[in-house]
């Protein structure tokens, strides 16, 4: 039977403890790679660490695939679209007017001014004559330099080259007219630099050397080093790749708001699911397919804002913060959309908790496979008596159960190696409630330790890097089946119920914040759960009050 909990690129060889990365090479790239798949060791036997590495390698490989396609498609073109011709000539016009403006800003001496006047007049007359007589060879040197600058090849004897040369001659005449106007003291604005033609590869100066893909890699390294989510790296990588497929792997210093707007408009036209023939297509190919096949459901404005634009804005925002660019061009680019109210999760009531404590996992010893073994029993009970987030509980190790001053507690301060913390204030210590101890929780911890398990719930598996992702879905189904609960009641409902129970028990707000990992609301209380006296935390959690909660049958 296929292991559906394992990512498709994560594999294990028979007889080997280590995990391996295995990915199919797209059919259109197999001739370039000379093989059908990429296969190598991830050099770890730890599943959670392997999940992180496979996601990072997937991002890297997908970007490599996009780069290979771009290089392949950058071969000498025999045909050019009108848009490509317009972009190429607009790039030349932008460069000429920008260079002229920079020189004028620096100031021209009387001799330089007169010399420029003669040069512009002569060049203008020569360009007009070449345009009138169709002498495209007169512009060939400038055209070749331009194509070399943007990394684009056009066969010199092709119709495309002649078409482009004639268009550049027209652009040169118009540009020289603009320079003459400037020389007469009239205002002529330098147009913004347009997006590169499709498949162009820019020649990059040292100043602008850092490309978008390289910036994403740097951001990802810092993000992960700071305890950030590998899922964010993977998700951002998807949209960085899409931007690159649309505009090429541009130097970030050359990305303008116009590029981001064009990317936004393109994302709004992409399908929700790239299935069938769409799976192997680049963004431009998908756009063409969508034009020819109307009616396919496209990405929502919210998805484009939160994910597509959010990813690009975050990466470029990091670059701005680190002085790699002067301004984030994606900062204020958004799809105008009607605001939708955020779904509110409902707390479990005491009646709900009593019903949960009578589920078959407690009354019949049931241990569904998807419930992760003993996790099916202990995670709900831990939710009731800690108010912790599901992932915080599911990722606990045996060593995270500690004792100090005679008080057993959950150490939720550690990060790294598959551990996630939502915020800095999430790092905290939570004393183990006496009711959990009476139910035999510490005995379970000792049993896991003696069996040599490092994780508290070793049977928890998930395709996502969140160890509880699959378990969360199982709990939703299981709780609705046996408790008939509303879909708005999920595992997080334990957290809401816990906060209500603290208030019911008269626990001070600052102690409640320290137990639940909430950021304090005042400056004077910003010392958090990690530094809060353990004795005070123990006193607070023992005041937890669920009037009418029936758990006597759960004592060990």
Describe this structure in words.
By secondary structure, this protein is mainly alpha-helical. The protein is 51% helix and 5% strand. The chain contains 22 helices and six strands. The strands form two sheets. It has a three-stranded antiparallel β-sheet with strand order 1-2-3, with helices on one face. A hairpin with a 2-residue loop joins strand 4 and strand 5. Helix 2 packs parallel to helix 8. The two termini are 37 Å apart.
The poorly predicted ranges are 1-6, 201-207, 521-529
Radius of gyration: 31 Å
Helix segment tally: 22
What is the residue-mean pLDDT, rounded to a whole number?
84
Tell me the span between the first and last alpha carbons: 37 Å
A few lines on this structure:
This protein is mainly alpha-helical and 556 residues long.
Keywords:
three-stranded antiparallel beta sheet; disordered N terminus; 22 helices; 556 residues; 5% strand; mainly alpha; 6 strands
Fold topology:
Layout: E1 10-12, E2 19-24, H1 30-33, E3 37-41, H2 47-73, H3 82-106, H4 110-133, H5 140-150, H6 159-183, H7 212-225, H8 230-247, H9 257-267, H10 283-292, H11 301-321, H12 350-356, H13 360-363, H14 375-386, H15 390-394, E4 401-404, E5 407-412, E6 428-431, H16 434-438, H17 441-450, H18 469-483, H19 492-504, H20 509-516, H21 528-531, H22 534-542
Antiparallel strand pairs: 1-2, 2-3, 4-5, 5-6
């Amino acid at each position: 039977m296929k292991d559906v909990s394992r990512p498709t690129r994560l594999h294990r060889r028979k007889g080997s403890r280590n995990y391996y990365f295995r990915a199919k090479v797209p059919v259109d790239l197999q001739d370039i790679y000379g093989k059908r798949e990429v296969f190598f060791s991830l050099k770890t036997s730890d599943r959670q660490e392997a999940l992180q590495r496979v996601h990072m390698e997937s991002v890297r490989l997908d970007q490599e695939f996009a780069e290979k396609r771009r290089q392949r498609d950058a071969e000498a073109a025999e045909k050019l679209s009108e848009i490509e011709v317009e972009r190429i000539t607009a790039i030349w016009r932008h460069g000429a007017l920008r260079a002229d403006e920079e020189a004028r800003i620096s100031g021209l001496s009387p001799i330089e001014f007169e010399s420029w006047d003669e040069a512009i007049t002569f060049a203008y007359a020569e360009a007009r004559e070449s345009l009138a007589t169709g002498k495209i060879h007169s512009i060939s040197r400038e055209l070749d330099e331009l194509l070399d600058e943007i990394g684009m090849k056009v066969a010199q004897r092709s119709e495309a080259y002649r078409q482009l040369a004639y268009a550049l001659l027209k652009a040169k005449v118009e540009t020289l007219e603009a320079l003459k106007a400037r020389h007469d003291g009239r205002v002529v604005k330098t147009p913004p630099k347009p997006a590169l033609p499709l498949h162009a590869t820019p020649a990059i100066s040292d100043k602008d050397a850092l490309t978008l893909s390289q910036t994403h890699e740097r951001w990802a390294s810092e993000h992960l080093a700071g305890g950030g989510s590998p899922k964010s790296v993977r998700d951002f990588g998807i949209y960085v790749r899409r931007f690159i497929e649309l505009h090429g792997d541009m130097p970030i210093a050359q990305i303008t708001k116009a590029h981001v707007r064009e990317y936004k408009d393109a994302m709004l036209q992409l399908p929700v699911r790239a299935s069938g023939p769409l799976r192997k297509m680049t963004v431009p190919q998908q756009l063409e397919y969508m034009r020819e096949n109307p009616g396919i459901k496209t990405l929502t404005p919210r998805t484009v804002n939160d994910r597509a634009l959010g990813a690009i804005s975050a990466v470029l925002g990091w670059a701005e913060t680190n002085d790699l660019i002067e301004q984030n061009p994606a900062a204020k680019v958004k799809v105008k959309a009607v605001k939708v109210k955020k779904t509110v999760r409902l707390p479990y009531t005491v009646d709900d908790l009593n019903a949960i404590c009578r589920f078959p996992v407690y009354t019949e010893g049931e241990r569904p496979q998807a419930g992760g073994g003993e996790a099916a029993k202990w995670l709900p009970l831990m939710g009731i008596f800690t108010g912790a987030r599901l992932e915080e509980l599911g990722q606990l190790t045996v060593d995270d159960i500690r004792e100090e001053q005679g008080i057993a507690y959950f150490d939720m301060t550690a990060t790294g190696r598959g551990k996630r913390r939502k915020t800095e204030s999430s790092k905290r210590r939570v004393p183990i409630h006496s009711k959990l101890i009476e139910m035999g929780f510490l005995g379970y911890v000792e049993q896991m330790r003696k069996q040599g398990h490092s994780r508290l719930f070793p049977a928890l598996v998930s395709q996502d890097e969140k160890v509880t992702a699959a378990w969360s879905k199982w709990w939703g189904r299981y709780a609705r089946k046996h408790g008939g609960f509303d879909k708005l009641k999920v595992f997080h409902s334990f957290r809401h119920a816990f906060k209500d129970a603290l208030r019911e028990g008269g626990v001070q707000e600052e102690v409640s914040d320290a137990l639940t990992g909430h950021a304090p609301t005042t400056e004077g209380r910003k010392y958090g759960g990690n530094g809060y006296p353990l004795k005070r935390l123990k006193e607070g959690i023992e005041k937890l009050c669920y009037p009418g909660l029936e758990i006597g049958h759960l004592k060990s």
